[in-house]
Amino acid sequence: MDIKVIKGNPTEDELKALVQVLTDLQQEAKARTSRGYRNLWGRPGNPNHGPVVFNPSAFSSQTLF
Q1: CA 18, CA 5: separation in Å to the nearest integer?
Q2: Cβ-based neighbours of 26, under 8 Å, separated by 6 or more
Q3: Where do the record's region annotations for Disordered lie (predicted)?
Q4: 19, 31, 42, 63: most buried, per Cβ within 10 A?
């Protein structure tokens, strides 16, 4: 992790502490967002097909439809 100090004069120990805190926060955020395996069996809609588009002239050549 690269940190650029714009203002002030932090010591090496302060920079190490800041890097440690930011690293811990990043790991916690990743742990919250990774949920693992999700069973999508009951999910509405068919995941194998895209959204249905209504086209009134799709079957205009069909006489029995």
Answers
A1: 11
A2: none
A3: 36-65
A4: 19
The tokens for 25 are 């926060």
User: Residues with Cβ < 8 Å from 15, sequence gap 6 or more?
Assistant: 3, 5
Report the alpha-carbon distance of residue 53 to residue 6 in Å, rounded: 53
> Which distant-in-sequence residues (6+ apart) come within 8 Å of 47 by Cβ?
40
The dihedrals phi and psi of 28, each to the nearest 5 degrees, come to -65, -40
Cβ(65)–Cβ(59) under 8 Å? yes
Going by C-alpha positions, the residue among 8, 1, 6 that lies closest to residue 25 is 1
Token pair, residue 28, equals 């916690």
